[in-house]
Amino acid sequence: MNKVCASAAEAVADIPDGASLAVGGFGLSGIPDVLVRALHARGASGLQIVSNNCGVDGRGLGVLLADGRIARVTGSYVGENKEFARQYLSGELEVELVPQGTLAERLRAGGAGIPAFYTPAGVGTQVARGGLPWRYAADGSVALASPPKETRDFHGRPHVLEHGITTDFALVRAWRGDRHGNLVFRRSAANFNPLAAMAGRITVAEVEELVETGGLRPDEVHLPGIYVQRVVALTPAQAADKHIEKRTVRA
Predict the structure, then answer these.
(1) Where in the sequence is the signal peptide annotated (predicted)?
(2) Residues 6+ apart with CB under 8 A from 36
(3) Is the CB of residue 153 less than 8 Å from the CB of residue 159?
(4) In terms of pTM, does the model score above 0.85?
């Protein structure tokens, strides 16, 4: 039951080229930065990423993106990453943009064993009709577009069918965790990390504070260890190394 790995490098050592990964975080809040950098150092490429956003230039998933290690992104926000936008518009990167709430539920559904669900989000738009550019050609034309999705009326209101998401691996960051993989998330880091962790067949969690088994009360656990296969304990310096995506101060 002891799921603690000796290092981040050991925890990601078996992630192959072309693997699909659900990655937690919201902006730069709660991103598994240490695991992402370990994966970058490992050299894996052709990765298929599912994440709310793709980091920023030089931080988070942006590190993998800058070296051309990512082949496809399923997310809801391009954000402040200029390289992300450049690769997408130039046809180097395939991108499936998903409404944010739908993305969250697709991850949760996949983790819960629910293959698909209906939602009103996206009805009447290209999300349902199809035609969203997934990949551009070098000349700026659309090389690959999203297909139309099944729709159905419930109580007189149209809904679109969305599929649950599961991935080969998941990388997440937690505030606290124990050796069994039970995790506690803090503030904004609780947005996508639990959902990404549920969706991964093999989930790796970096934790800012590792406690012994029994050190977490059952009622404070946000994600039970059944969803987590590997735990990496961060050093105090790694735990404190947090960046702000956009700082705003008074004049």
Answers:
(1) none
(2) 23, 55, 60, 61, 63, 64, 171
(3) yes
(4) yes
Strand stretches in 28-97, DSSP E: 47-50, 70-75, 94-97
Domain count, the chain: 1
Can you tell me the distance from the alpha carbon of 59 to that of 66, in angstroms, rounded to the nearest whole number?
Answer: 10
| Cβ pair 119, 159 in contact under 8 A | yes
Residues 132-164: pLDDT tens digits?
999 999 889 999 999 999 999 999 999 999 999
pLDDT at 14: 95
In a domain, 65, yes or no: yes
210 class by beta-carbon count within 10 Å (0-12 exposed, 13-18 middle, 19+ buried): middle
Q: Can you read off the two tokens belonging to residue 120?
A: 């009103």
Question: Does any domain span residue 76?
Answer: yes
**Residue 198 in tokens:** 């549920």
Helix (H) or strand (E) holding 210, with range, is strand 200-211
